[in-house]
């Protein structure tokens, strides 16, 4: 352990924050489970799977989906305070986002993902890098709260405004006919991201885990370290398995 620490110190490689990996892994596992239930309900026609309802429109599922999506976004904001190159993170997110848009366009043009959670994170990282990276945590928290509050008023704003274009999709404004498999506008989600960035500065100013005693490695932590790859690959794997089992026709 001492030799490994010395090598890390010499190479200036930051240690992993155990609890962040764990929470990110938990968020991505919950997200994969949510998408599995959606696929089984929408494409296979199952009403339940492992005692879980596939009707994801119920209030309980809406709350659950917003919880683990919010956890994923807030952890991304928090992680931005650790990154040595957020522009590279932006480009990585952007590449994945464009790939998702292309794949969903081929799969179903009517519900193509134009601004899903990865698109949102890519844009959030870019705005954070250009505008908020050198600001104080309180500034990030204030702006994040204001964006969240604006999000609460978005339903009322949409009733007043008649939007005839989808060019304002990133802000949460779009045509009534708009439909997508995945949609996470900057209002309110960039607010969640900024609050995460504020927490990262407040809680991890020393860039060290809050859990001083090392905990054993878990599968959840592994998922947390590879969350982007899991997000990118889980739907093609699920749909491929359903196709092989004869439940869906891909084209």
The largest beta-sheet arranges its strands as: 1-2
Secondary structure tally, helices? 9
Order of helices and strands: HHEEHHHHHHH
How far the N terminus sits from the C terminus, by CA atoms, comes to 52 Å
Overall description:
This protein is mainly alpha-helical and 251 residues long. It has one domain. Helices cover 65% and strands 2% of the residues. It has nine helices and two strands. It has helices at 2-11, 18-44, 59-80, 86-107, 117-132, 137-160, 186-203, 219-225, 227-244, and strands spanning 48-49, 52-53. A two-stranded antiparallel ribbon has the order 1-2. Strand 1 and strand 2 (52-53) form a beta hairpin. Helix 5 (117-132) packs across helix 7 (186-203). The longest helix has 27 residues, at 18-44. It is globular. It starts with a helix and ends in a 7-residue tail after the last helix.
